[in-house]
Amino acid sequence: MSAVAQPVAGPVSVPVVEIYLTGRFDLTCLAPVRSALDTAVRLRPDRLVVDMAGCVGIDAAGVALLLDVHRELLRVGAGLTLRAPSPRLRRILRIARVEQVLHVVPEEVPLSGRATIGNAPC
């Protein structure tokens, strides 16, 4: 995974930043996904959208990372949205009670003013 945008110094804020996950989101790919999410957070978006349509699985490490990023964003008044998880992933998120904490939307929701920083394949 490589981020295609570099954050600049100083107060930057964009309305929406999107990250697309593909493959399994588990311990084996945590480092590149964390890097992409850190880059996105440094852009100071009002909302960070993690598109999970291409994600086929998630483990406890992936869930923990999403919750960490959620907390980081809350501290600066921003939000995290998980978009388009498969029914299987949605079930896992529901069992982990992540849906009670994070904003999860079932399908692609059109967003204006967005910045895409890349794909995070696992």
From TrEMBL:
The chain positions of domain STAS read 16-102
User: Highest taxon of the source?
Assistant: Bacteria
Name of the featured protein: STAS domain-containing protein
Which species is this record about?
Phytohabitans maris
